[in-house]
């Protein structure tokens, strides 16, 4: 078995579910959630009725050091061909090779994250899978991630490529530990929906708000700045200032929503510092 992976077998045949947590070491809420879930099953508080459930602490080294990654962003390395600049001796590269078979072989895949600036949980999912994850009970969905080559190499996209139904749950803010219960409850809701545990589904929260990404803001130069007042899902009017990206004064060309803004000083050149989206 893969180090950091916990596999639970159901009584009967059923779907193969894989859940990653802690792909970024500064996002521990998902890791705590799957540890609680594994404890529930191992102590007999819950029973897996069918299928298999594999729970994975993805980036164990970064989790131990409480930092996003050691050498590379693990969630950009799930590729069949990586860039020449990739250190193929690094922990993250080797870990991605170890984890990729799980993504190729599952029917459903969830990865649990948190965001640096987020006041509420949201789901990142391709439009064709929106209906599949509505039972999770999350009120905001973000789509369009897979349309951008610059964002390739994420676990959700890799699982989708091999036929899984996949999504990414951003359970809230990095520093808000209520994300543990958000992630835990979301996973229970989906396991219940799939008939894998005996539990009651939460009441429907109605149709979610859906946002489609149309632009990725990449940090181009060392000096870049995203205003600290910016929040996730901020509405930005056409022509309004978004950020300083090196010498570029970035303004929106249309009314838009700012998604997942990151403190630019903490991101490397070539990494994302935010996204612009349209509300569907």
Automatic annotation (TrEMBL):
The segment(s) forming the Succinylglutamate desuccinylase/Aspartoacylase catalytic domain are 14-177
Q: Report one GO cellular component.
A: cytosol
Instruction: Alphabetically list the UniProt keywords.
Output: Hydrolase, Metal-binding, Zinc
Gene Ontology molecular functions: hydrolase activity, acting on ester bonds; metal ion binding
The cofactors required by this protein are:
Zn(2+)
One Pfam annotation reads AstE_AspA_cat
InterPro entries per the UniProt record, alphabetical = AspA/AstE_fam (IPR050178), AstE_AspA_cat (IPR055438)
Q: Which residues constitute the signal peptide according to the record?
A: none
Q: Specify the protein name.
A: Succinylglutamate desuccinylase/Aspartoacylase catalytic domain-containing protein
Species, as recorded: Candidatus Kaiserbacteria bacterium GW2011_GWA2_52_12
